[in-house]
UniProtKB/TrEMBL annotation, chain A:
N6-lipoyllysine PTM positions: K63
Biological process annotations from GO: glycine decarboxylation via glycine cleavage system; protein lipoylation
Swiss-Prot/TrEMBL keywords: Lipoyl
Required cofactor names: (R)-lipoate
Function noted in UniProt: The glycine cleavage system catalyzes the degradation of glycine. The H protein shuttles the methylamine group of glycine from the P protein to the T protein.
Oligomeric and partner information: The glycine cleavage system is composed of four proteins: P, T, L and H.
Keyword Cell membrane listed: no
PANTHER family in the cross-refs: GLYCINE CLEAVAGE SYSTEM H PROTEIN (PTHR11715), GLYCINE CLEAVAGE SYSTEM H PROTEIN-RELATED (PTHR11715:SF3)
HAMAP family: GcvH
Keyword presence, Methyltransferase: no
Protein name from the UniProt record: Glycine cleavage system H protein
PROSITE patterns: BIOTINYL_LIPOYL, LIPOYL
TrEMBL record, chain B:
Residues covered by the GCVT N-terminal domain: 11-266
Gene3D superfamilies the UniProt entry points to: Probable tRNA modification gtpase trme, domain 1
Keyword terms, alphabetized: Aminotransferase, Transferase
Name this protein carries in UniProt: Aminomethyltransferase
Substrates-to-products reaction catalysed: N(6)-[(R)-S(8)-aminomethyldihydrolipoyl]-L-lysyl-[protein] + (6S)-5,6,7,8-tetrahydrofolate = N(6)-[(R)-dihydrolipoyl]-L-lysyl-[protein] + (6R)-5,10-methylene-5,6,7,8-tetrahydrofolate + NH4(+)
Organism of this sequence: Kutzneria viridogrisea
């Protein structure tokens, strides 16, 4: 499942513009499926600054732990507190209730450099 | 990516059909979880209803001939004299220095026949060691791909076997030779989950038919096919050691708290001198259970610190307990640390507080 209206990173994150220069970030359905049951999510605090490629948090499943990388530079403006008590939302609704953080981008035009749906689907299909 | 050097279970096609996620396990390509389940749902099915596992990667070996049981008893640690024919026993194959080559189940068929179920990765080595020491007239045969192994585990496991006309009224660790659809199957009251359960040994070629029949009987009861991911969380909740992590050539049974599986009164077994000395002097390190007090998941190989920051050991297994909904671990710690002691795990640079607990982490229902 790769919704067309979202942007993607090769690290299996999705990104969508939700306000002026503000993006919402989560991990893709493919990523949650690879991880298995998510049991613990570590997220940054609101106000933290991140640079592109920096570790934004961790998603831990029964099997393994994966780092989540900031797809773009900016400041954390929101974190999904629901994931503290219900980390399984990442499995059940990866593109909706399982969102992770919102970032105010330093440079909104950088969003254009991310993969579109077709580009991400191609990457996943190549395995 | 398909690694063609990996061995395949007789049920590989059935697992693919169920959209299993596969991983290499002891040289075998085995299902970790199924698309319809997932580790937590499969784990819960076993605790609350019933789960059916393919564990055909487990080894099978036959030691046969005059004095076979006596020979096995002189080699492996546990005392076969404690059980009668028709019963099985958890035992260990050790080196002279007391390291563990493998932990295995020995089925005492009779004085002239012992059937062994070692771990997949160690079967060849166990067979080689036994064959090298076997007196004339006793044969050791590696039967790795002559039988499949299916585990049916959970409070409703007996109902599943009964639906197939298989015997269910067996004492814990007893086994019986039965038949299903005209084919032979050995039914054992054994398992690795802490629940009431059975392990079935059909012939390799008959494994698929048995698997489908078991699943058909289990599903109306809320049962599920279960992968090795759930098997690992289930066994960790029971504090059962996994060879290669909690028991190994470097971790002796005395250290791992598996001294109960050693026949100390026997005149001898492989490694007896080293193990007796270690038991006498007290092991330098011992396996302990740890339960996380904060959110976070322990994994194998993490440093264990005392509250002053001093390193006192390392985790050998760690996972998220689906039953307790918290992190749990087994850890080798210097000396004996009493239950209730608070310790700290180094989780990739972050501190995770935990307390020492005596396993099992979850109550056992094997009997």
């Amino acid at each position: 499942m790769v919704p067309e209206q979202l942007k993607y990173t090769p690290e299996h994150e999705w990104v969508v513009l939700v306000g002026e220069s503000v993006v919402r970030i989560g991990i893709t359905d493919y990523a949650q499926n690879q991880l298995g049951d998510v049991v613990f999510v570590q997220l940054p605090e609101v106000g933290e600054r991140v640079t592109a490629g920096q570790t934004l948090g961790e998603v831990e499943s029964t099997k393994s732990v994966s780092d989540i990388f900031a797809p773009l530079a900016g400041e954390v403006t929101a974190r999904n507190d629901e994931l503290d008590g219900s980390p399984e939302l990442i499995n059940t609704d990866a593109y909706g209730a399982g969102w992770m953080v919102e970032l105010r981008l330093d440079d909104a035009s950088a969003l254009d450099e991310l993969l579109d749906g077709a580009g991400y689907r191609e990457l996943v299909d190549q395995g | 990516m398909t690694d063609t050097s990996l061995l395949l279970s007789p049920l590989h096609a059935a697992h693919t059909e169920l959209k299993a996620t596969f991983a290499p396990f002891g040289g075998w390509q085995m299902p970790i979880q199924y698309a319809e389940g997932g580790v937590v749902a499969e784990h819960t099915a076993v605790r609350e209803s019933v789960g059916v596992f393919d564990v055909s990667h487990l080894g099978k070996a036959l030691v046969a001939g005059p004095g076979a049981a006596e020979f096995v008893n002189s080699a492996l640690t546990n005392d076969l004299g404690r059980i009668a024919p028709g019963k099985a026993q958890y035992t260990l194959c050790c080196t002279d220095s007391g390291g563990v080559v493998d932990d295995l189940i020995a089925y005492l068929v009779g004085a002239e026949e012992v059937f062994l179920v070692p771990n997949a990765a160690n079967t060849a080595r166990v067979c080689e060691l036994l064959a090298a020491q076997a007196p004339a007239g006793i044969t050791v045969t590696d039967q790795h791909r002559e039988h499949g192994v299916l585990a049916v585990q959970g409070p409703r496991s007996a109902e599943v076997l009964a639906a197939l006309g298989l015997p269910t009224e067996l004492e814990y660790m007893a086994f019986a030779d039965a038949s299903f659809a005209g084919t032979p199957v050995r039914v054992c009251r054994t398992g690795y989950t802490g629940e009431h359960g059975y392990e079935l040994l059909p012939r390799w070629a008959d494994t698929t038919a048995l698997w489908h029949a078991l699943l058909a009987a289990a599903e109306p009861l809320g049962g599920k096919p279960c992968g090795l991911g759930a098997r690992d969380t289930l066994r960790t909740e029971m504090g059962y050691p996994l060879h290669g992590q909690d028991l190994s050539l470097e971790i002796s049974p005395v250290q791992a708290g598996a001294g109960w599986a050693v026949g100390w009164k026997k005149p001898g077994f492989w490694g007896h001198e080293a193990l007796r000395a270690e038991k006498e002097n007290g092991p330098a390190r011992r396996l302990h259970g740890l339960r996380a007090l904060d959110r976070g998941v322990p994994r194998a190989g993490m440093a264990v610190l005392d509250t002053g920051g001093g390193r006192i050991g390392e985790t050998t297994s760690g996972t998220f307990s689906p039953t307790l909904r918290t992190g749990i671990a087994l850890a080798l710690l210097d000396g004996a640390v009493p239950p209730g002691t608070e310790l700290v795990l180094d989780v990739r640079g972050r501190s995770l507080r935990c307390e020492v607990v005596k396993p099992p982490f979850v109550e056992s229902h094997v009997r």
